[in-house]
Write a structure and sequence with these properties.
Elements (H helix, E strand, L loop, with lengths): L2 E2 L6 H8 L4 E2 H11 L13 E4 L7 E2 L1 E5 L4 H9 L4 E4 L16 H11 L3 E4 L2 H5 L4 H6 L9 E10 L9 E8 L5 H4 L4 E11 L2 E10 L1 H10 L4 H4 L3 E4 L4 E13 L5 H12 L9
Parallel strand pairs: 1-5, 5-6, 6-7
Antiparallel strand pairs: 2-4, 3-7, 8-13, 9-11, 9-12, 10-11
Organism: Adineta steineri
GO molecular function, one term: metal ion binding
Pfam families: DUF34_NIF3
Length: 280
């Protein structure tokens, strides 16, 4: 039987997992990444994904423990309940570790997870940024989007898969007799357009290529000794568009105004919190 001991607010995803019995680790991780791709996390400082991997390849997971922070008491509970996977919202490994010793509690946690074969996965800001994620849940304290308020991310993230996974657009003008297949054979280089043209040297073809940084280097190497071709090469960095639905934080505009105390009570009700601090 598949068991979950602690839920965070991503209820829809968790309910999907609890209906199944015994799932391979990679299948579970794929579902989490489908819900909130890791590219949504703030790559400049955050540390997300699998942080502790088991020695067994793709084990069957029957019990998961969800927690906001992976402390020693939480880990002891996971071991007691025989959980094979811990989803820790905040990453237990944040700064680079120079050693793993028993003198530091954070290092002890990692050592104990390895000893007991427990996988640790942290989603952190990817769950903040995703549409219908943690931020969206928090602002639901004020009602229904579009009906009671309008919202937008404070800082939008770039879409990962558009216009392509490649990072550059390269154009090159080749003599008509040149073999374009040499370019097509390069890994991560996709010819997206071929236009016949005429240069001072005669009939030619202008080729547009979507390619990775490594592929750019390979194309340059192809024509290293052909200056008449090298000087025609132009490279444009592809900028991916912003995703208006996903990003860090949420700025909302209420349809009806509320006092600060009313707003606090709304949040307390949502989070089932019985106390608050109000600074005026």
């Amino acid at each position: 039987m598949f068991s979950v001991f602690r839920l965070n607010k991503s209820q829809q995803l968790i309910r999907y997992l609890t209906t199944m019995s015994g799932i391979q680790l990679n299948t579970i991780l794929s579902q989490f990444k489908e819900y909130a791709p890791l590219y949504l996390a703030d790559q400049s400082w955050d540390n997300v994904g699998v942080l502790v991997e088991p020695s067994e390849n793709n084990p069957i997971i029957e019990k998961i423990l969800f927690t906001n922070d992976l402390t020693e008491p939480v880990l002891d509970e996971a071991i007691e309940r025989q959980a094979q996977l811990i989803i820790s919202y905040h990453p237990p490994i944040f700064s680079p570790l120079k050693r793993l010793t028993q003198s530091n509690w954070k290092e002890r946690i990692i050592l104990k997870c390895i000893k007991h074969g427990i996988t640790v996965y942290s989603p952190h800001t990817s769950w903040d940024a995703v549409d219908n994620g943690v931020n969206q849940w928090l602002i639901s304290a004020f009602g229904t989007n579009e009906q009671d308020y309008t919202s937008r991310p404070i800082e939008q993230v770039k879409e990962n898969d558009t216009p392509s996974k490649s990072q550059h657009l390269l154009t090159v003008t080749l003599p008509k007799e040149q073999n374009i297949n040499l370019i097509k054979d390069i890994k991560d280089a996709t010819v997206i357009n071929e236009i016949s043209c005429t240069t001072s040297n005669g009939p030619a073809i202008q080729v547009s290529i979507s390619c990775s940084s490594r592929a750019v280097s390979s194309i340059m190497d192809l024509y290293r000794n052909e200056d008449n071709i090298l000087k025609t090469i132009q490279i444009v960095d592809v900028q991916k568009p912003l995703d208006s639905r996903q990003g860090y934080g949420r700025l909302i505009q209420l349809k009806e105004s509320r006092t600060i105390r009313e707003a606090i009570e709304n949040v307390k009700t949502l989070t089932e919190t019985s106390y608050s601090f109000l600074l005026l």
